[in-house]
Design brief:
Largest sheet: 6 strands, mixed
CATH topology of the largest domain: Alkaline Phosphatase, subunit A
CATH architecture of the largest domain: 3-Layer(aba) Sandwich
Structural class: alpha/beta
Low-confidence stretches: none
Helix content: 25-40%
Strand content: 15-25%
Number of strands: 18
CATH superfamily of the largest domain: Alkaline Phosphatase, subunit A
Mean pLDDT: 98
Number of helices: 17
Strand order of the largest sheet: 6-5-7-1-8-18
Radius of gyration: 20 Å
């Protein structure tokens, strides 16, 4: 049902959801993930002998972008790729990806289904990066995390990420079970990650760095600023490798890729009355929209969005989008978080809203849809000297 230029993530085979379950398996801890295999990436073999595993996620480090700018990241370019490129989930956006990583499950199972989603029955939306405690994170995302399952098996588990995110709704929803070690910058991230790895004989340490994604959004991925920031990520990885314990392994991955959106391929929803008539709530983000209709207007809204947008986006009703498999199997209680209309941008198109979302509408780089550039993320590996 998808057009040829958009791709369905292959959950349970080669996606971000498979990274932490594979790392846990390498540490001797199988995790519960329903019908999905324990270690489809073969990390038990790739990390054989490791007693400590670090997983570093660089926000926005798309695999296509990394290949295109390998000269700015020689350390990353030299790392092994034990399973080739992986796929981000749908939508290809940070909250969805972090929940997918943390739970080892597709979005339709964990329920963090977009950057902004409707809260069913309440007539309001939830921005997952501005979330504190409403709704309750342990209820909104009720699945057990991989971190909690690994910690319950006696492995020391730590999340190393900026202090600003400690205690946020998203942190509590997707990292619970891990001790949170706040950091103040990239150098501190490297040092705290290494200290956490060395603190126990068996350890799983997750690290997160956000600056590359922010730079891409504000300056664009085709910019000197983005390439300079990529070099800083490369230096961070080099610092971790330099101090990697002899019996430890490092995995480097990302949450999504990114592409620049020129002015000529933007549709401003706030100046397009044919697209806003009958809209009750606008959610999602410019390349992955969820549109909730006023009661009784669902069919008309879907038809108009399809007619107006044409080949600029894949437009589907909720049931059709779920049936396509892009979210993985969707739990019945979570389906209403998806819009009555789902619109995933094609090419370099974006569906901005300059009045309702002035900040996001001014960005240069975007992600969220299912193009190869947005979905393809690296999985890179290094082994400590005792592991060969």
């Amino acid at each position: 049902m998808l057009p040829a230029d958009l791709h369905r993530p292959d959950y349970g085979a080669a996606t971000l959801a498979d990274v932490l379950p594979g790392a846990a398996a390498a540490l001797g801890v199988p995790v519960e993930r329903g019908d999905l295999p324990t270690d489809p990436l073969g990390l038990t073999t790739a990390l054989a002998g490791a007693r400590r595993v670090a997983v570093l996620l660089a926000d926005g480090l798309g695999a296509d972008l990394l290949r295109a700018h390998a000269d700015s990241a020689p350390t990353l370019a030299a790392l092994a790729a034990p399973a080739g490129d992986l796929s981000a989930p749908c939508p290809s956006t940070t909250p969805v990806s972090l929940a997918t990583l943390g739970t080892g499950l597709p979005p339709g199972s964990h329920g963090v289904l977009g950057f902004v989603t409707a809260i069913p029955g309440e007539g309001r939306t939830l921005n997952h990066v501005q979330w504190t405690d409403d709704p309750d994170p342990l209820v909104w995302q009720a699945r057990p995390s991989v971190f909690a399952q690994v910690a319950a098996a006696g492995v020391d588990v730590t999340t190393v990420a900026p202090y600003a995110y400690a205690g946020s709704g998203l942190t509590r929803a997707v990292y619970r079970g891990a001790r949170y070690a706040g950091t103040v910058g990239p150098g501190d991230l490297a040092a705290v990650l290494l200290r956490s790895l060395a603190a126990a004989p068996r350890a799983l340490v997750y690290g997160y760095t956000a600056e590359l994604d922010l730079t891409g959004h504000v300056r664009g991925v085709d910019s000197p600023s983005w390439r300079a920031q990529l070099a800083h990520v490369d230096r961070l990885v080099e610092q971790v490798l330099t101090g990697l314990p002899a019996d430890a392994a490092l995995l480097v991955t990302a949450d999504h890729g990114m592409l620049d959106v020129p002015a000529a391929t933007r549709v401003d929803l706030d100046t397009s009355p044919e697209l806003t008539e009958g809209v009750r709530l606008l959610a999602g983000e410019p390349r992955a929209r969820y549109v909730h209709a006023v009661a009784g207007a669902e069919a008309d809204l879907l038809a108009r969005w399809r007619a107006v947008l044409g080949e600029r986006a894949w437009v589907a009703g909720r049931d059709e989008a779920i049936a396509s498999g892009v979210f993985g199997p969707v739990d019945d209680g979570l389906a209403a978080r998806i819009g009555d209309v789902v619109a995933l941008a094609r090419g370099t198109w974006a569906l901005t809203a300059t009045e309702q979302e002035p900040g996001p509408s001014r960005l240069v780089g975007y992600h969220g849809s299912l193009t190869e550039t947005e979905l393809a993320i690296p999985l890179l590996a290094a082994r400590g000297p005792a592991l060969g």
